[in-house]
Structures are given as structure tokens and as C-alpha cells.
Amino acid sequence: MNPAAGHGNGARLLPTIEAALTKHGLDYELVCTSHPGHAVELTTQAIRDGVEMIVAAGGDGTLNEVVNGLMHSRLTGGHLPTLGVLCAGRGNDFAGSVGIPEDIDQACKLLKVGQSRLLDVGRFTGGIYPEGHYFINCIGVGFDAVATIEVAKLPRWGGFLSFLIAILKTIFLYNHAPLATIEYGGEILKQRSLMISIMNGRRLGAGFIMAPDSKPDDGLLDLCIAEQMSPFQIIRLVPHFMHGTQASQKNIKTGKASLINIEALDGPLPAQTDGEIISTEGRSLKVELLSRQIKVICPLPIEEQ
Description:
Blueprint: H1 5-23, H2 38-48, E1 53-58, H3 60-74, E2 82-87, H4 93-97, H5 104-113, E3 116-126, E4 129-135, E5 138-142, H6 143-151, H7 159-173, E6 179-184, E7 187-199, E8 203-204, E9 208-209, E10 221-227, H8 231-243, E11 252-257, E12 259-264, E13 271-273, E14 276-279, E15 284-297
Parallel strand pairs: 1-2
Antiparallel strand pairs: 3-4, 3-15, 5-7, 5-13, 6-7, 6-12, 7-10, 8-9, 10-11, 12-15, 13-14
Helix pairs in contact: 1-5, 2-3, 6-7
């Protein structure tokens, strides 16, 4: 449990979470994180203790740390618990992507039922993680990394409202995209890219549908690449991203790949993953998709129900 998630929303939800866990008859131990990286340590210890399920109660950042703890333990060949999610963050984007309800009572009911899917996990090398790091929802290079920095400066408000305001600020702060080479799926794209979104989930910013066709268990990452454009052109695109129709626009390219390489030819590559800034001065990122790595408590897709 991250009490700092969502600008303190985690702490405010603590009594609600404990009441719902008790109501649904779940035998649990609740431990709060106290510093960045703590959820990785707690996850590793919980696996050693032989727990059946680890629940990340927080936002996408908390979930990212738990996923990294699970994946590091996976390398040792040990048994991995199932992963559950309770939404207490600002965006809760991966949970929203796979149908986990934000309502705490409904999410605890889902934990009780225990229905799970085996989902993909992404891994990247570069930025502040030259040795590699895992992600569950996304990597964003360029525009959305700068927007992530801006949203952290804002009061809590609503999750989507905070992201929308940060995006509008970023439109006028970040308008010179680096020239970069993007290699994916046998293609090589060389251009100034205002934004390169690499998605395992469907959405960012609590409501921007970056990858409407993404499936987190298909062995592929979804790309959404925006060319350099004017602030006015970006503003015109915002409604398309809210509805997931941006692929219909001429300055947007989309694709799918299991391995992606990005190299800056001039200027750095600002980048974020699951809401954490991972690069401000780096010039290269290598991203890969690891197929069906962890079991996540979430609804089954309609075709499997």
C-alpha cells in the first residue's frame, strides 16, 4: 500500500480498503511503503514468505514496483504469486486498461473471486536503468514524458483533469522534437517525433486511449508515433486521443512489434515508464516484450467469458 499515491489518496483510502478486504473475507497483511523502491523490497520478501497473492494498492508507479519485484524473483525460478490491484493513484491506467474497477469494494470482490489472466510484461534498457527495468503499462518518449513532469507539479484535483492541464501546458513547453531513428517490426523510421508511445496497456493520463487495439497478452507492444507539429495541430489531436481515433490522422503512425529500438540523432530522449521519469538526457532506448509472464487478477476479455 502506497499512502502517498495520488497526492495522499492512498492514505485517505486506507480505512476503506481495510473495511472492504474484511467484508469479502480476505485473509491479508497490509504493509505501507515508505520510500521509492520499497514496494520492490516488500514484494521480494512476500515471495520468500510464500504468499498466494500480492496486491498493489496505489497508482501505476506502485504497480510498476511490484511488477519489478515479481520479475526479479522470476529470474531465480521461484514460484510467483498472483498479482492483484487496488486503485489509489491519480491515473490507474493499467487497471483501467484490463477492466479492474476503481471502486475499492468491487475490486476486492474481484480479488475474492480470484479470476486471473496471464499477461505480458515489457522490459527496457537505457536512461537511468542501463541494466534494464520492467514495465506493465507503457513507455512514453518525448511529449508525454514532459507532461508527466508537469502533472507531478499540479494539485491532486481529478486524475484526468490534472493530465489534461499538464498536456495543455506541455503543448507550449515542448515543441521541438528530437530527430530519432525508430526500429520496429522490420521497419526503420527516421523523423522528428514529438511523441513515441509504446503501450502494453490501452491508455495513459486517466483517459487518453493511446492504443485502442492493445491486448496485454498478445506478445506485442503497440506503438503510437506523432510527427513534429505545431501547437495548434496538437490541440486538434487531443479529442482523437480521448476517443482512440488518432490513427486516422496523417501525422500519426501506429504499429506493433515485440522489439523496439530508439536512437536520438540530435538532442536527448526524455522518457517515462508507468509514470516514472527514466530519462532526461539519454539518447537510446531498447524495449522488448516478454510474453505471458505474470498472472493478474482481472476480468476475462469478452471473447473468453
